[in-house]
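A quick aside before the break. I want you to see a complete sequence-to-structure record at least once, exactly as it would be stored in a machine-readable document. Don't worry about memorizing anything.
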Amino acid sequence: MSGASTPVSRSGRSTPLHFRDVVHDVIRHFRHEKDSEAHRIFRQSAGHKPKGALPQTVNPAEETVPGIEHPGSTGVIYCSDRAMANGFSYASSHEWANLGQGAPEVGQIPGAPPRPTSIPLPVDSLEYAPTTGVKALREAVANLYNEQYRQGKLSQYTYENVCIVPGGRSGLSRVAAVVGDVYCSYQIPDYTAYDQVLSAFKRLVPVPTALDAENNYKLNVEQIRKDIRTQGLEVVLASNPRNPTGQVIEGEDLKSLVNVARESSATLVLDEFYSWYMYPEDGKEEEQLGRSISSAEFIDNVNQDPVVIVNGLTKNWRLPGWRVCWVLGPKNLITALSQSGSFLDGGANHPLQLAAIPLLEPGRVMEEKIALQKSFKHKRDHVLRRLEELGLKVDVPPVATFYIWLNLEKLPAPLNNGLTFFEELLKEKTIVIPGIFFDINPAHRRNLFHSPCHHFVRLSFGPPLEDLDKGLDAIGRVLRKAKKEGGHAFGHSYKKSVDGVHQLDKLI
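That is the input. The structure line, written in tokens, reads:
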């Protein structure tokens, strides 16, 4: 055609664009797990192969217990195991920067009430506690929610709406055990343990929805309403505030989500463990400090609305070692959870339940919230500032939680994927969590390079400030090495994982 420009192939040849050029171009840009040492190490870990007909084992030649299938580890467990392969031990943990930890610092912070230092052990506490928990603690939980979120409402929580559980995963497992054969909606990215819950409890048929940065990873309430109607969803599972993106739905959006559950009779299961980690906007500290969020604020009838809340002392009270948490919901749900708890976990620690009661006093809770929000906002702002100085500006900064969802796409290959970035930081005695662990993909069949979470890592600003700086310094060293030596310096020479439980025991 006269006057038309001549198209040029990527190989430099002019028209026509030969099929050979297309093939070469595809091969040049194709990436697969087998081409990456970090990805091969991940897949070789038990439970991380694509799910098939045969059970997964560590080493089939060494299996001694027939029929055992490895469910796959959560991100924190896998990353801890890989760190041990690189010399990490709990005895020398002070030499490392753990920006992967899913727990807040547990020591004293300015303005907070004193940390618990002793636990009373009355003789009665040496007995088993009820599988629903100690009644006085259940009453304290109900009273706190009524005080914070249900003032002036006719329907109030009582101890019969509360089940005490030994940790958040236990709460989720109890709920999953009493759910029938249903379609369960969840969003990507989200909390890593949902992957194992959806894998282990086969009656929950997973139906994923991907959230994106363009919408600030915001949960789309209208899409959920449509999916309930068109796909027959009966359960919606989500964290709010959201792990790992640090985003939150609140106010009218959260009210609409609760309304959707009520109107459609779909059960809404909300993991609200980060409900205190809400950061005031600059200049609005005085009016916003001390606020928290919960779907409990928008429930009409606590015994009829199909809303289940999971929370506990782990994050907000900064007591992860206590393993004292709760599930809040209609009375008939609590009865069912008592039954599932009797064979799943047997109940939470009795003395620690008693010790938790005074920690839920509303005045003390407000002190805790204000101190926590001041301290963690300072750490968040510090980490975001340092990342930007390193050329790693965060696309969607966190407004809640203590996590940063860091996009690595602009880094040179192979540092631009979470698994390789993670392995390189292990060489610098720093731990982060690769983004693929937040791709809730129970069958594990997807090519990891195709995951929407592949180019991300989650950074935690849960640790003390000095540990954060140690980890950020390590990231800086890796980036300077990349600038000086190029991509060929990365992606290889990784240490093998520790073989066998007995060797892990030695390291611990």
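Two observations worth writing down. The two ends are 73 Å apart (CA to CA). The CA atoms of residues 142 and 157 lie 5 Å apart. We'll return to this after the break.
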